[in-house]
Amino acid sequence: MYKILVVDDEENIREVIREYAEFEGHEVDEACDGMEAVEKAKDKDYDIIIMDIMMPRLDGYLACKEIRKFKQTPVLMLSARGEEYDKLFGFELGIDDYVVKPFSPKEVMARVNAIVKRNAASAPPAPASSDVEKFEGLEINFVSRDVFIDGEKANLTPKEYDLLFYLVRNKNIALTRNKLLEEVWGYDFFGDDRTIDTHIKMLRNNLGPYRKFIVTLRGLGYKFEA
Amino acid sequence: MYKILVVDDEENIREVIREYAEFEGHEVDEACDGMEAVEKAKDKDYDIIIMDIMMPRLDGYLACKEIRKFKQTPVLMLSARGEEYDKLFGFELGIDDYVVKPFSPKEVMARVNAIVKRNAASAPPAPASSDVEKFEGLEINFVSRDVFIDGEKANLTPKEYDLLFYLVRNKNIALTRNKLLEEVWGYDFFGDDRTIDTHIKMLRNNLGPYRKFIVTLRGLGYKFEA
DNA sequence: AAACACAATGAGGAAATTATGAACATTGCC
DNA sequence: GGCAATGTTCATAATTTCCTCATTGTGTTT
Description:
- Two copies of one chain form a homodimer.
- Chain A is an alpha/beta fold.
- The first copy, chain A, has two domains: about 5-120, Rossmann fold, CATH 3.40.50.2300; about 130-225, Arc Repressor Mutant, subunit A, CATH 1.10.10.10.
- Helix content of chain A is about 40%, strand content about 20%.
- In chain A, a hairpin with a 2-residue loop joins strand 6 and strand 7 (about 140).
- Mean pLDDT of chain A is about 80; it is low at about 125-130.
- The interface between A and B is medium-sized, with 24 and 16 residues.
- Chain B binds a DNA duplex through helix 6 and helix 8.
């Protein structure tokens, strides 16, 4: 049984998560915004905090930062897909994972379990995902949103960057086109599958010799293999 | 065989789905609206509920929400194109999937199969199916979709992967050709039996020394024996 | 050992999938 | 509004994979 704090301004979201979590035997507290979340986190030791980003008064980023000042409680972020996708990782917020809306409660709880278990295992919490990744001469800076090919700055369009970002974040994992569409384009994109191919093509062109990292999985999708 | 509840106010829709489902050997109950659906769902444990959104008395959203209060039965939603599309996603009611009308019964049943199977797999709390399996020098990674033969990466075609994955997931179980066709090729495949042999052949070739794990069961089918 | 039933194999055409280029649409900016 | 950059769709080419079928091989039964 975990003690969980759910923070979101929309009641139905809290409701859905609460139901699922309680169904699994956990104890759930709720908060409507960042302020309230900080208060509650101060009072009580939660095993995990599930928090929306966009909230009135104090948003998820800042609330997380605030909480970090006195506790290392793991945080799972809920985010509407969009601009700030990668900001989630860039900084020292110590976010453990994130789920893009619309999520299924099932998925959220699966991640909660994973995080809490992982966290319990390694006493010294060390989330802090790196700000840059390097694969041979391919360097990706998640903070500045830059990509360097053998030291030369590559000129990626936003979509190309998003796609690369997602592929790299999930390197060595087979990703279906659907998954990519859902995660990179968003659940509200009802366009053509081939769109991905086109962006993959352009991305590959831009990666020069390191196009080799993006492998086609026939009948499935793509994978960043490093 | 699944127990399926079909909920729609149009009789021909129910009819079409029923026919297809029964053809596949499933058991089908019907309901005309949300109210009735909730009743029936309360009385009986269905493997899945296929439900229209727009219905008199109680619509699909609310019916789903209602049912969720006492059961976790997976729900597949039928929606007319353009019909409050985003509501499906905006917040999560625990809908497992959706199909846009006009749909083909084939598609519906394909999804039904996917959902029920997925659901059955995750229902037992800890089947703990690992991400990789290793048999001597044969290593299979289900996440990256890689197969290694003594450290060398094997180059399997999609069907070969699928076949191997299914065999391994059901290792030490005798699998008839029919079962294999149904599970790996899909219920809508009406091709030749020998097709399997051919793919087994190629798979064996690709597995090198570990072809030994795939044993022929004369008069029956095949088995992955480890 | 012969006859039989079934499995293994090889090859070619069919089918499915991906890559690519170019047209078209959208967005953001001046 | 017009322009430039980006994103999307679409048609076509290129490639890979799949399936069928005929033939050969192997184990079983009588």
